[in-house]
Structure formats: structure tokens, C-alpha cells
Write a structure and sequence with these properties.
14 helices, 36% helix, Endonuclease, Chain A, 410 residues, globular
């Protein structure tokens, strides 16, 4: 059973506006034993210990790891993706599906009908012909009333032991056998081996059933003695379940941070409450930095983010824009100990309409890797200075203001 349960009313002291105070009161911050207790109170989901985590910052490495896991599959492969394209990367994925199905591996695939709208029906028929079960989430004509509610997750689970998630859809913009110069996107993805992978199979089952798939059995997670490794909270949500809890979890992380909160996000339109929360952390002396796109595939979304820059800069938050490629990652690292990697953007849609999946990882080794990658990205970024920002053109200012007003619709 996925938690939090649908319709749950989060206690007032655990809501996004207030939970930061509880988190800040923890004597040892993010490494305080009480922080895990607070996360469990917020989300009601277990925090799984004994996980091995690998982080990928390039698409070719992430897709190679997924292919290797698929080749080793013995029983089952589960795939849930907002976008699954019929391109070079999608074709390699299809070959892997066909190979696994020939070996008798059960393969189930869910793709969002809107995100994957450019993928022709012939591709899905070819996949089904290989032996895979395929469902499209909320088809645009058949489910017209559900059009706003999308499946934005990016999940691959193999034998309920190994799982992948992060910001990468299945398309050659993240990694291709023969990429065109200047076409690759910058993103972050995870491989997790251990109990958290089992829970991600349960998350997949929610999207599968919502897309009309037949129920399938998931045995209870075996209760074994905890082994060394990262502790992981699977922070999943969909419309009507878990979205307030996801916002409160992020607020708790920021509230408990003592030294730094470094956030990378692709589509940034956070709202006034998040601006206030980040600003409060900066006033406490926390090094709060935002790494945001310098170029984008959705210009209106970038302008919506620009509408919050002045307020953030005035509150002491540092903002950087990544230059070499389109930035698509959705990550956070706090005090080099807590990392968040997943599919959620800091925008209205992710916290109201979309089904999302993120991993909250409590592990110093993973945190150090995330911090090192963030610093490397900063070397290829331009910092937005407050004085320079004030001098931007009137046209730019007006565009930012209009886009900010429209941000709930993006």
C-alpha cells in the first residue's frame, strides 16, 4: 500500500508553512535522529536502509546501466516514463524489451499519452508484438476530462531489486549512440539497489492501474537485518495523494539545513511560500544557491522563474544559470548529507496535477557526490547579480511578470 493515503489531512504543524520551525529546532540538523522521525511523521512512508546508490550525470551512462540491468533481468521489468520516443535511444530501449520478452521476462510499460504524443502508434504496436504489455496514461481523447493530470514519473524497476529514477525520459536528447553537437541535455538520474527498489515497484503499480493495466501481485518486502548503505525515502505523489507531504518534506530539509542548500531545477516557478522559505534559510546564514536553465525548451517557464529572481536575490539567495546545454535536472543537496533526485520541478504543475517520484537519500557519500557535481556545474554557469538584474530591459521585466501570473497554467 502506498503512503501517504489518498485524502489524508496533514496535521497543521507538519504543513509546509510551519514544519520548517520543527526541523530547525533539531539539535543536530539533518543528521539528528529526530529528522528521520520528522520525515516519517510527514510522509508516513518507511525510510529504507541498506541501499546502494549510484548517481549518473550523463544520459549515455544512465541508459547503459539500464540496459545492463535489463539484460540481467530474470523475472520482470517495469517501465514508467513521461516521454518515450521512437528515436535512436527509444529504439535501443525497444530492442532491450524484445530481448527480455524472448527470455520469458514479464515487461510492463506505461508512457504518458501527452508527454509521448509524438510517438506513433506503430511503435507501441511493435512493442506489444514483442511480448510486452503497454499502456498509455490518460489518452487525450478517451480521457479528455483527465487531460491536466499527467504521469510525470521516470521509473525503471528490474526484478524489484534494482531501480532507476530521476529526470531522464527515454529520448536521445539525454544520450544517443550518435548525438548531434549541442543537442544533449544536462540531467541527473539514480540507480538504487536494495529495499527502496521494491517500493518503487509499488509506485509503478499505481500508475499501471491508473492507466488501465491488469493488477499484478507484489509480495511483501522480506524483513531482513539491515545492511550497510544509504537510507532512502521514496517520495511519490499524484493528484489527491502525497503532494502536500512532498512540499512539507522539502520545507523540512531546508528548515533543518545548517550549512548549505543547493538546488538544481529545470522549470522553476516556486510561488511566494517557497521564496519565503529559501529566503529565511539564507537569513540564517545557510548558503542557498539555485542552479537554473540558461537555455530552455519552454521559454515561458523560464520567464516565469525570472519573475521570482528579484525577490530571491533581495533575500540573499544566489542564482546561477547553466550555459552549455538545456538543464533538465531536478535535484537538491543539503549539508552534503541529504540528497533529493527525481522528477518534480519546483512549479505548480508538479505539486498539484502530476504524478511524480523522487528519492530522498540520507547518505554522506551520495551527498558529497551531488555537491561535487553541483560545483562542477557552477563552473559552467553565470551568476545573476542583483545590480545587473535590476538593469534588465522593460520588455524583459514585463515578460517576467506576465509569465509569473501564468505560472499555474504551465
Amino acid at each position: 500500500m502506498l503512503r501517504p493515503l489518498p485524502g489524508r489531512q496533514l496535521p497543521k504543524e507538519l504543513r509546509p508553512r510551519r514544519v520548517g520551525r520543527l526541523a530547525h529546532a533539531l539539535p543536530a540538523g539533518l543528521e539528528d535522529p529526530g529528522f528521520e522521525v520528522l520525515l516519517r511523521r510527514i510522509d508516513t512512508s518507511p525510510i529504507h536502509g541498506g541501499n546502494q546508490v549510484e548517481v549518473y550525470f550523463q544520459g549515455d551512462a544512465a541508459f547503459a546501466a539500464m540496459r545492463d540491468a535489463g539484460l540481467a533481468a530474470e523475472q520482470e521489468i517495469l517501465v514508467e516514463s513521461y516521454i518515450l520516443k521512437d528515436d535512436a535511444t527509444g529504439r535501443l530501449f525497444l530492442e532491450g524489451v524484445e530481448e527480455a520478452a524472448r527470455r520469458g521476462v514479464a515487461v510492463r510499460v506505461v508512457a504518458d499519452a501527452l508527454g509521448s504524443a509524438s510517438t506513433a502508434s506503430a511503435f507501441w504496436r511493435e512493442m506489444e508484438g514483442s511480448g510486452a504489455e503497454v499502456r498509455l496514461y490518460h489518452p487525450l481523447i478517451e480521457k479528455i476530462w483527465y487531460t491536466p493530470f499527467r504521469d510525470h514519473r521516470k521509473i525503471v524497476v528490474v526484478d524489484r531489486k534494482v531501480a532507476f529514477t530521476g529526470g531522464m525520459n527515454i529520448g536521445e536528447e539525454y544520450g544517443s549512440p550518435a548525438p548531434k553537437p549541442g543537442t544533449l541535455w544536462r540531467d541527473t538520474h539514480l540507480r538504487v539497489t536494495g529495499p527502496a527498489a521494491w517500493e518503487m515497484a509499488v509506485v509503478f503499480s499505481e500508475g499501471w492501474l491508473d492507466a488501465g493495466g491488469e493488477p499484478f501481485e507484489i509480495d511483501p518486502l522480506p524483513v531482513d537485518g539491515e545492511t550497510p548503505g544509504a537510507r532512502v525515502l521514496v517520495l511519490d505523489s499524484r493528484y489527491g495523494r502525497g503532494q502536500v507531504e512532498a512540499a512539507s518534506t522539502l520545507a523540512a530539509i531546508v528548515g533543518a539545513a545548517r550549512r548549505r542548500v543547493w538546488i538544481t531545477n529545470a522549470y522553476f516557478a516556486p510561488g511566494r511560500r517557497a521564496v519565503s522559505m529559501l529566503g529565511a534559510a539564507a537569513r540564517r546564514g545557510v548558503d542557498v544557491r539555485l542552479l537554473l536553465p540558461g537555455q530552455t525548451d519552454v521559454p515561458l517557464a523560464r520567464h516565469a522563474g525570472h519573475g521570482y529572481y528579484s525577490d530571491l536575490l533581495a533575500r540573499g539567495v544566489r542564482i546561477f544559470e547553466y550555459q552549455p546545454a538545456i538543464l533538465h535536472a531536478k535535484t537538491l543537496v543539503a549539508d552534503d548529507f541529504v540528497s533529493v533526485v527525481g522528477s518534480s520541478n519546483l512549479d505548480f504543475r508538479s505539486f498539484v496535477f502530476n504524478a511524480e517520484c523522487n528519492l530522498v537519500i540520507l547518505d554522506a557519500e551520495t551527498g558529497a557526490r551531488m555537491a561535487t557535481a553541483f560545483e562542477a556545474d557552477l563552473e559552467q554557469s553565470i551568476e545573476i547579480r542583483r545590480a545587473d538584474w535590476k538593469r534588465r530591459s522593460l520588455r524583459h521585466r514585463l515578460g517576467d511578470r506576465v509569465a509569473r501570473w501564468l505560472s499555474p497554467l504551465l
